[in-house]
Design goal:
The chain has about 250 residues and is an alpha/beta fold. The protein contains nine helices and seven strands. About 45% of the residues lie in helices and about 15% in strands. The strands form two sheets. Strands 4-5-6-7 form a four-stranded parallel β-sheet, sandwiched between helices. It has a three-stranded parallel β-sheet with strand order 1-2-3, sandwiched between helices.
């Protein structure tokens, strides 16, 4: 099951897993986009079911149970951003929404599904985080805080599930060329992020999806409780000028 599955990283992860024979449950608020993705996956020979839902709402988990009573792979990908502002100017509603989507909903969903994974002796929980959790993010305190909380959740699920065949891991992303990032992150900030990334470019949703797919597989069973940077080396240098060509991509 993948939250935030309608586009970007979520959609790429759905295609990658479906290509490996996984029946994917696609969850997001955008019903039309989900149905289109599910149809596309099925046209390519995969299995997919769409569930339009607000993961912060009450009652939607009952509908999930009807569609997929046994979920072995859980990918927390849904995200929310507040408008860029210093902490003292962030509205209460924005704070609550970001924390609910990025932290509280993953906790509730993990609680709901973890018992079944333990009982069946296999489970994978993969959370999509952000380098903002480790470095901080000026103007995005709610997002950085919410993503930082996922590390504690991940490590604790790893402890509680490890003897039952359940692993939990967190990937911390740099700049990714997803629809959300391209539309909601200011171009100047995107340029600064790229300039301080060792590989000199943003990542693609498909690159992130391959990491998620690996962490969901049987071969990753000895990796758990890990916080894995998948960021192209974001922040490795103190100054962008330390990278060749001033840290900018080659032509």
């Amino acid at each position: 099951m993948i939250t935030g599955a309608a586009r970007g990283i979520g959609a790429a992860a759905a295609r990658a897993l479906a290509g490996e024979g996984v029946r994917v449950v696609l969850v997001a608020r955008s019903g039309a986009a989900l149905e289109e993705l599910a149809s596309s996956i099925e046209a390519e020979g995969g299995e997919a079911v769409a569930l339009a839902a607000d993961i912060t709402a009450e009652g939607w988990l009952r509908e999930l149970d009807g569609l997929a009573p046994e979920v072995d792979l859980l990918i927390h990908n849904a995200a929310s951003f507040a408008p860029y502002a210093p902490l003292e100017e962030v509205g209460e509603e924005d704070l609550s929404r970001v924390l609910e989507v990025c932290t509280v909903a993953p906790l509730r969903l993990s609680r709901h599904l973890l018992g079944g994974m333990k009982a069946r002796g296999f489970g994978r929980v993969v959370s999509v985080g952000s380098a903002a959790a480790s470095f901080g993010a000026g103007g995005q305190v709610a997002y950085a805080t919410a993503k930082a909380a996922l590390a504690g959740m991940t490590r604790t699920i790893a402890i509680e599930g490890g003897r039952s065949g359940v692993t939990a891991n967190l990937i911390e992303l740099g700049l990714v060329e997803s629809e959300r990032a391209m539309s909601e992150i200011d171009p100047t900030i995107r340029e600064r992020l790229v300039s301080n990334t060792a590989v000199g470019r943003a990542g693609s949703p498909e690159e992130i999806a391959r990491v998620i797919s690996f962490l969901c597989g049987e071969e990753s069973g000895y990796i758990t409780g890990a916080v894995i940077p998948v960021s192209g080396g974001l922040g490795l240098a103190l100054y962008p000028e330390q990278f060749p060509e001033g840290g900018r991509p080659s032509a």
